[in-house]
Description:
Layout: E1 7-14, H1 20-32, E2 41-46, E3 53-60, H2 63-70, H3 73-81, E4 93-96
Antiparallel strand pairs: 1-3, 1-4, 2-3
Amino acid sequence: MIGAGTNFVIINWVANPFRGDKFAAAWAPAAEAATKFGAHAWAFTRSKDDPLHFMQIAVFDSKIDFERYWYSEEMAEARIRCAGWYQVPLLPIWYATVGLGVVSETIVEPEPA
Length: 113
């Protein structure tokens, strides 16, 4: 469950010039794969102001769960496939949630007449 005390890891990616689209298409499935290693949520975002900047966010219970994902053979192979499309080093940064809120609208469908 995502709430107070939740651990977020953020990885800032910078694609090399003229490689942003290739990187986005290739890395999105790798970012989603975090859920196979225990992530409760994930996001892979691209800056609208600078389309070479990406941010990957994942929510894990513990850092060891993230490390199982990040250092897995599957992710190592994904990074190799994308080699030359992004700048290194990559530094995962951990955050603990201080506050969190969600706004949602409930849509009620009309009953058929």
